[in-house]
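Build the 3D complex.
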Amino acid sequence: MNFIQNPGSLIDLSSIHRDSKRMKQIPAHIGLVVVEDSISCKDIAKVIVWSIGIGIPCVTLFDQKGWLKEMRHKINQEVTNYYNLLLSKEKTKMVLSCRNGIALANISIPGYSKPIRLNFLSNSDGRQDIVTAAQKLCSDSNFYHATVTDQEIDRVTSTLHATHGFPDPELVIKFGDIDSMLGFLPWQIRLTEITSLLSHWNLPYSLFLNVIRDYSNCQQRFGK
Amino acid sequence: MALTTRSDRGNQESNSAWFPERKDPGFIQKFCCKVIKAGEIPKHVAFIMDGNRRYALKMNYSRIIGHSMGFDKLAETLEWCLDLGIKEVTVYAFSIENFKRSKKEVEDLMKLAKGKFDRLLLERDKIDKHGICIRIFGDISLLPPDVQVAVANTVKISRHNNRAFLNVCLAYTARNEMTNAMKELAIGVENQMLRPSDICEDLLEKCMYTGEATQPDLIIRTSGEVRLSDFLLWQSAYSCLTFLDVYWPEFTIWNFLWCIIRFQLSYQKIKDGKQYNNQMKEHLQHVSDKENALKEACMAGEVNTNMDDIIKRYRQEREKRVNKFINYLHNKRLEFVNALSNLD
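Done.
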């Protein structure tokens, strides 16, 4: 029996879609960084489904020790369950594919948003991925001859494996009371807005929505 | 705060010292610092000193006055750091992206920077008294020639100090820094000083502009923005990140102590996180050494030698190669600064 009505149970995809329409900007890529000691697949799945509903096409999940990676099948199952709960009439089409240890789930929801891509990352996808890129580029004599230009910096970006084909995350929601990113995508978070929430356990939709709304209202000057 | 007209502030613009006469901090501040010092104090704090222009707008000053007041706040913050026993401070003074600002503002900022570095030479005795070593991180060749000389002189005269470190990021972005480090490694590989498989986290770190610095324990960004903006992206991976909703010229000791408390609260868990990364790092190195050692032994036709001995020998040779390369890079950078400096 629930003493506290989780507001998440009152929402549906139409209301999320309406909330999305009111936003000035939606991130193209969101990072969910979990620095807590335990993970609730159900609650993570909810945040993923809310991200789908609000129109974020790319979601990266991270925890240092790779627990999310290990539980990705369970998480995908919970995503399907929760999504079906919210929208029983429409069908979800889910294709799970694994690419070199990074699991991708391609979920397309006809009529609501673009297909979403899920990325599961851990410690080895941070600094170590940059090291691997360095090893590749250092054997390339063209790289040696070039000066450090924007093009060369872009080359490094495209050589990184963890986020190949993804844009940089524009927003990160960090779950937990540790004030550190614990090695999450150091290269890619150059301009990322970082928001912290105490926990993903029993996270209400309203808190998630506030984060997206704050992001939607922020402006960057890009050094100028 | 005393009322001053815009013209009054204008006269104060370029004369303020790095080590001004100290006001007594007062009993309460001294007491609070003592309490904070009972817990862990970060050894290295990095500041993104953001909000000078918005502060100037709020107070109806010109932008360059905002930047000048930002400098005064930096000088005050350095005092607090010395009081608290913080040995290393890094500041984000000028990003490569800032070159995109208006020509006038960039010129004014370069003039301010040159003035401050020239001023440092005059306060040399105080730098030596506190034992401060000043280092510059960034692509110095992007700065105007006169600023390059001023910066090189500062680095040269404080090089021998080692009690405290002030690192100034000038013409800096983290991606530029990491790409530059990779280029240095590419030169090493091209000249056969290094093998690609020698490249690891520790070596890549040593090749960055921050190679001789420690990693920041605490990063403080003012003005309410909650991003790193291409500042120490690699080095901050395991730092405590704090974001404050005050403009830099308004930063107070109480804001600072609050950030240090946040650091203390996250300290143990961050330490555990760093330790985990170190374990993973060591494991990967061991696997790589084993693989490469065996490859080498096979190619040399060594069949009867003990495997542990082969791996140990390979590791020693790798470390020798790497240390030689790091020394070469250190000397290259030393010579660059010496060539720029116009002091004896």
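Residues 12 and 80 of chain A are 14 Å apart (CA to CA).
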